């Protein structure tokens, strides 16, 4: 006997809202009584961030979804631009936690406004209007900053540089990367614990290596942090190679992504 079918649908929906998006999406297979309840707006409203309407209101995109479940998966599968194209926003499908990518134009890049060193152009695979194209530098240094208050609370975040390598790239074997709370740790202190990352090498002892994303771009982990109550001010991620002043070129930067672990 299907005992769950004896419970009021509203009761089942309330129970499911305390589970996870994955549990709710698969629960309809357990019982016929779960199917309608598992797809109700009561359940999926709980999985959306509490400020999702405010975030959507800052987008130029028109998001139309008949149900909260469809809205949830739309936000997971189709990142949209917000804050005038400075950021892209999406949800982590398994948890509903917020993901943000900072556009390359919003990064602080040494010599970024000097055409001889960096050029700015559109890219057919980028979600932003422009990407940064490294022409030639010896001093590679870029940083991105985001406010902890807009991120999901009580969540561990990992920061990634999202990039591609142009044909004929050079000098991009290794760099140093770190993530810090701006108000809590100095640059010098953070540099002392920086990780060695490899943008182009597939192997190297003690190095973090780049991986290919499903969208065709590459990403390299820069560091991580725990966002507790969202009251730690700005968090900054930095990638740099300023010690070995060899020529470097062929790096295409889309942005830096702050994503739940």
UniProtKB/TrEMBL annotation:
InterPro entries, sorted: F-box-like_dom_sf (IPR036047), F-box_dom (IPR001810), PP2-like (IPR025886)
Domain F-box: 1-47
SUPFAM superfamilies in the cross-refs: F-box domain
Xref: Pfam families: F-box, PP2
Gene3D superfamilies according to UniProt: 1.20.1280.50
Protein's UniProt name: F-box protein PP2-B10-like isoform X1
Source species of the chain: Nicotiana tabacum
